[in-house]
């Protein structure tokens, strides 16, 4: 998930660098917390045999598990800056700790690969930041992101304070905090509601305008006449142009832009199967990408024992029912003691991937654990239909038969 | 922790150093000298001599004494440089089995790495005598501008000498290391290194004990030898011939004496204003008369004969500084040649600051190598850390004989890069990948490192089969390449070790013949690339057009040609400016057509200008 509320110019400049130009939507480091924030280090990894110092181990673990969520400055432990001297100081410091030459002859144990990877990643980021043109834009966008985040935190805090005050005022009868919050919501006056709605509408309109101009920009860049085309053209050729611009955007993995173009193309030429297929394809790709991102976020949330982890996992599965992720989710649910939560997902995954035996096996095991023997037997039978010698299914079937006989 | 020695394998002199108690020190040889001449000889009795002993007998045994072998390392026999070396070397340079240059002494052919290894063995034994223990590991320095073949060959020399080459580092970088070690500096420094055979120029950022090379450039065939040769061929031999009607080049022994005298005079002129060259009985004429050579060489004459060589070195500096945009705080002179007053003056004028004088130009390189050896020996945080770069762009030849660079020069090593290429022709089932190093857009102008073939591709339309090519450059600057068929995952890797033995000529021919077996960029990239090239050619065209117009203005026959050229230019301009259309392959065709026409026209105009000059 990238920060996208910077100027269209900056964003399209950064888009040339693909992933390396992306600025994560939220800063990882929260104000007032140290470098590692609430990151929970796995004690076993920290203590495993290695010649690395504990401080370096922490750095390697942290960077290698979070590097997809760090901007280049955070990676180098810097505030956004265009001062090359400062950037160098940070990178040189990291080099002295993690450059392969600095680690030569030491036994790094389980950290070997991660250390190499982290350093490679940092070197690439450093190389980009040394390019003054890139650095200026990137620093600007990161600063904007930080500012937006700070404003949001502030607003949230203010709201919490206001809710607290309202709750205290109207707390004559209410006992629980939740009740208080509810009361606060109910107590909002109609004028405020109207104002908020108005603001929302204005923002929507603004968003739409921005979206359109961005699309026009992309279309222009890709060489199509674009939405703002000066002279009227017949719909078919115009659709074709939009389609082509979309293809270019798609190749560059600029999904949103590609989707926009394909959408216009299908609207202009509703009966062209090619355009509709392209639109579907991009939608799928977007969902896939988003699913992966949400999944990563869920894992991060899980690592810090966040409450929303399970919810995010489910959100990712809704976006894309990836069989591996479904399996992983089932294992997680089992570990949390909430096995039943995974059941519908496994059912759905089994339906979507009719030839996947692993999913069916997970489902069968789970049904058995919940004493739903009939159901479990049905799934076993399905597995055996796919592969009559499937050993796991055979074993479970035998076991289930034994159990029912006993009964 | 094992000891790692540092060796400066120079064209003229070599040195070895170690770090003792935190201080790098040069190790003197048996004669008490801190450097040893890089000279190898085989006596009539078949005995091998290295260093001072070899140098001393060079006069009496010129054809079996090899000096400056480094100028030939990693070179093709057929290359221009080998030819130039052959012309001025008393020893016999012969072609080796893979087209490499070799040397024949007393009927035996030696590869250049073999000869270099003899010097390395000598340096190793100097270190062993001093330390009283055997030495197995070394850091060896190479000119920064050495290409892959030269680095490979140097590594091979180390192995032949029984040394594990822990790392090869660049000479100017080593010098910077020795200069900056133990000092708490935070500066941008430039190293100007002019030795016996090679010129290197590097710019580094130094702070916190980290030495980061920002840019490097150089010429592996520019050094003191070239200054000597100027004196020899453009002055001594010439004047002698005018005076006595005798060509001294016929007599190898005379030439050897002359060369020694020329070098000696050059060195004397670094402190004196004039030097005497006195060589009695230099040659006997056919009529039996014995001739003597007696001349006075002034500093002014020397400078007149060689100032263009200094210009060349400064052009290289200029380019590197411009490309890196660096602000140089300090200039350091390295290499024996930088004792020449002209060089010191010109460098000072160029950088607008006096070069530092507190480094020993003959020793810093070996000292730096020893420091890197210490850093790589492990055991605790290293005192110094090098972030060096690759001096040349690395890429492959694609369709039309173009060079497609994958890793640009001045990229920090180690590094790797992957790129996807496609087939160029319908139903193409095999590709040949030619790996090259250099800066020219025309692949045949660059150095060929090696080639490999990937076959068994699925027959398909051109552009459909995709191949993923991955390049890697190690910290030593050595290249390895692998290619993978994207569809099948089938992989083929080469470390570009085996010298292909292909001459530039053959490469050109292959570019013609193997067009069909090459790869290409993906259509989208290709169009962008071609557009850039057309734009660039248009710029060159705009630069020469005024000249051409005036030259051809009063020539009736030319009017027609000029009009045609204008047409070509306008058409190309329009094509380059046009936005990509729906039909990518049509765009490509147009661009290709216009680019060809444009380059042909430009070429024609250059020829016209050349002709009119005369
Ligand atoms: N006082 C001097 N004045 C001018 N030139 C000198 C002087 N002393 C040495 N040289 C020249 O310097 C060159 C040797 O320099 P140096 O020993 O640094 O080269 P190298 O390290 O062997 O070569 P390279 O680094 O190019 O492989 C010779 O050409 C020698 O003639
Ligand atoms: Mg040298």
Note down, in words, how this protein is organized.
The complex is a heterodimer of chains A (407) and B (614). Chain A is mainly alpha-helical. In chain A, 72% of the residues lie in helices and 0% in strands. Chain A contains 19 helices and no strands. About 9% of the residues of chain A have low confidence. With 614 residues, chain B is an alpha+beta fold. Chain B has 14 helices and 28 strands. The longest helix of chain B has 30 residues. In chain B, 46% of the residues are buried. About 1% of the residues of chain B have low confidence. Chains A and B meet through α5, α6 and α11 of A and β19 of B. Adenosine-5'-triphosphate binds next to α7 of chain B.
Q: What's the arrangement of secondary structure elements?
A:
The complex is a heterodimer of chains A (407) and B (614).
Chain A: H1 8-15, H2 43-47, H3 54-66, H4 72-75, H5 84-98, H6 100-103, H7 112-130, H8 132-169, H9 177-187, H10 190-222, H11 235-251, H12 255-268, H13 273-303, H14 309-319, H15 323-336, H16 339-352, H17 357-369, H18 373-386, H19 391-406
Helix pairs in contact in A: 1-8, 3-7, 5-7, 8-9, 10-11, 11-12, 12-13, 13-14, 14-15, 15-16, 16-17, 17-18, 17-19, 18-19
Chain B: E1 4-9, E2 13-20, E3 23-26, E4 36-37, E5 39-42, E6 48-50, H1 52-56, E7 65-67, H2 80-88, E8 92-95, E9 101-105, E10 108-111, H3 112-131, E11 137-142, H4 148-160, E12 164-170, H5 171-180, E13 187-194, E14 199-207, E15 210-219, H6 224-244, H7 252-268, E16 274-284, E17 290-298, H8 299-324, E18 330-334, H9 341-351, H10 364-376, E19 385-387, E20 394-398, E21 402-407, E22 415-423, E23 430-437, E24 447-455, E25 466-473, E26 479-485, E27 491-495, H11 504-513, E28 519-520, H12 523-552, H13 556-577, H14 584-613
Parallel strand pairs in B: 1-11, 11-12, 13-18, 15-19
Antiparallel strand pairs in B: 1-2, 2-3, 2-4, 5-6, 5-7, 8-9, 9-10, 13-14, 14-15, 16-17, 20-21, 20-23, 22-25, 22-28, 23-24, 25-26, 26-27
The complex binds adenosine-5'-triphosphate (ATP) and magnesium ion.
């Amino acid at each position: 998930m990238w920060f996208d509320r910077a100027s269209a110019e900056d964003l399209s400049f950064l888009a040339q660098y693909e992933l390396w130009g992306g600025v994560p939507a939220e800063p990882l480091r929260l104000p007032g917390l140290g470098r590692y924030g609430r990151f929970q280090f796995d004690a076993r990894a920290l203590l495993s045999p290695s010649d690395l110092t504990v401080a370096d181990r922490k750095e390697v673990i942290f960077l290698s598990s979070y590097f997809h969520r760090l901007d280049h400055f955070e990676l180098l432990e810097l505030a956004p800056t265009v001062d090359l001297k400062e950037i160098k100081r940070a990178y040189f410091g990291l080099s002295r700790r993690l450059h392969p030459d600095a680690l030569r002859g030491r036994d790094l144990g389980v950290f070997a690969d991660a250390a190499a990877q982290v350093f490679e990643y940092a070197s690439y980021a450093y190389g980009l930041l040394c390019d003054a043109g890139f650095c200026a834009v990137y620093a600007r966008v990161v600063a904007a992101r930080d500012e937006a985040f700070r404003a949001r935190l502030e607003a949230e805090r203010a709201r919490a304070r206001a809710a607290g005050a309202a709750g205290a005022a109207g707390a004559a009868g209410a006992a629980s905090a939740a009740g208080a919050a509810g009361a606060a919501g109910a107590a909002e006056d109609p004028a405020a509601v109207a104002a908020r709605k108005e603001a929302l509408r204005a923002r929507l309109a603004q968003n739409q305008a921005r979206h359109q101009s961005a699309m026009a920009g992309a279309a222009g860049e890709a060489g199509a006449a674009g939405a703002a085309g000066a002279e009227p053209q017949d719909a078919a050729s115009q659709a074709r142009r939009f389609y082509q611009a979309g293809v270019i955007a798609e190749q560059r993995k600029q999904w949103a832009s590609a989707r926009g173009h394909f959408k216009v193309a299908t609207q202009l030429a509703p009966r062209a199967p090619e355009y509709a297929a392209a639109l579907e394809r991009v939608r799928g790709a977007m969902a896939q990408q988003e699913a992966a991102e949400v999944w990563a976020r869920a894992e991060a949330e899980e690592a810090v024992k966040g409450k929303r982890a399970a919810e995010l996992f489910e959100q990712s599965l809704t976006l894309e029912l990836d069989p591996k992720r479904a399996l992983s989710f089932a294992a997680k649910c089992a570990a949390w003691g909430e096995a039943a939560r995974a059941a519908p997902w496994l059912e759905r995954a089994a339906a979507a991937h009719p030839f996947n035996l692993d999913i069916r096996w997970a489902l069968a095991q789970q049904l058995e654990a919940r004493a739903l023997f009939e159901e479990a037997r049905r799934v076993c039978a399905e597995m055996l239909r796919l592969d009559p010698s499937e050993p796991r299914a055979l074993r479970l079937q035998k076991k289930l038969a034994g159990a029912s006989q006993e009964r | 922790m094992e000891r790692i020695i540092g060796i400066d394998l120079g064209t003229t002199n070599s040195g070895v150093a170690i770090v003792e108690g935190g201080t790098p020190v040069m190790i003197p040889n048996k004669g008490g000298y801190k450097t040893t001449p890089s000279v190898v000889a085989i006596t009539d009795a078949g005995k091998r001599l290295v260093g001072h002993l070899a140098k001393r007998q060079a006069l009496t045994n010129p054809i079996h004494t090899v000096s400056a072998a480094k100028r030939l390392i990693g070179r093709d026999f057929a290359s221009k440089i080998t030819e130039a070396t052959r012309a001025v070397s008393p020893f016999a340079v012969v072609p080796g089995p893979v087209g490499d240059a070799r040397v024949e002494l007393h009927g035996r052919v030696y590869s250049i790495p073999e000869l270099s290894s003899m010097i390395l063995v000598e340096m190793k034994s100097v270190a062993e005598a001093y330390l009283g223990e055997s030495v197995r590991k070394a850091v060896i320095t190479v000119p920064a501008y050495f290409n892959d073949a030269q680095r490979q060959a140097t590594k091979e020399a180390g192995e032949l000498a029984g040394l594990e080459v822990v790392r090869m580092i660049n000479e100017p970088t080593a010098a910077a290391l020795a200069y900056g070690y133990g000092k708490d500096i935070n500066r941008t420094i430039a190293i100007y290194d002019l030795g016996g055979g090679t010129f290197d120029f590097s710019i580094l950022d130094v702070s916190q004990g980290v030495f980061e090379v920002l840019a490097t450039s150089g010429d592996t065939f520019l050094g003191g030898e070239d200054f000597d040769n100027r004196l020899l061929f453009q002055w001594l031999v010439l004047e002698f011939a005018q005076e006595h009607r005798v060509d001294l080049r016929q007599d190898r022994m005379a030439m050897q004496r002359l060369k020694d005298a020329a070098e000696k005079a050059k060195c004397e002129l670094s402190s004196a204003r004039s030097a005497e060259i006195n060589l009695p009985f230099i040659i006997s004429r056919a009529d039996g008369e014995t001739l003597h050579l007696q001349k006075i060489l002034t500093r002014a004459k020397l400078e007149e004969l060689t100032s263009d060589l200094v210009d060349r070195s400064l052009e290289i500096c200029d380019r590197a500084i411009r490309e890196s945009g660096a602000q140089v705080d300090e200039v350091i002179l390295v290499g024996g040649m930088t004792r020449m007053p002209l060089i010191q003056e010109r460098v000072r004028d160029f950088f607008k600051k006096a070069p530092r004088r507190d480094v020993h130009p003959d020793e810093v390189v070996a000292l730096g190598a020893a420091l890197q050896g210490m850093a790589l020996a492990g055991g605790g945080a290293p005192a110094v850390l090098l972030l060096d770069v690759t001096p040349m762009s690395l890429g492959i030849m694609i369709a039309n004989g173009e060079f497609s660079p994958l890793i640009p020069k001045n990229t920090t090593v180690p590094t790797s890069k992957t790129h996807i290429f496609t087939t160029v022709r319908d139903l193409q089932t095999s590709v040949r990948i030619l790996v090259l190093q250099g800066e020219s857009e025309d692949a045949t102008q660059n150095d060929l490192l090696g080639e490999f073939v990937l076959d068994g591709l699925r027959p398909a339309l051109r552009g459909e089969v995709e191949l993923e090519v991955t390049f890697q450059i190690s910290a030593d600057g050595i290249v390895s390449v692998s290619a993978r068929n994207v569809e099948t995952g089938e992989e083929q890797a080469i470390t570009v070790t085996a010298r292909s033995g292909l001459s530039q000529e053959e490469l050109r021919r292959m570019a013609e013949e193997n067009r069909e077996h090459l790869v290409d960029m993906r259509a989208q990239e290709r169009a962008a690339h071609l557009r850039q090239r057309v734009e660039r050619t248009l710029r060159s065209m705009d630069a020469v057009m005024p000249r051409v117009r005036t030259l051809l203005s009063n020539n009736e026959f030319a009017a027609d040609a000029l009009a045609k050229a204008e047409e070509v230019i306008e058409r190309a301009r329009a094509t380059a400016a046009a936005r990509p259309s729906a039909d990518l392959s049509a765009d490509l065709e147009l661009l290709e057509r216009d680019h060809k026409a444009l380059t042909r026209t430009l070429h024609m105009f250059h020829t016209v200008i050349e002709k009119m000059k005369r």
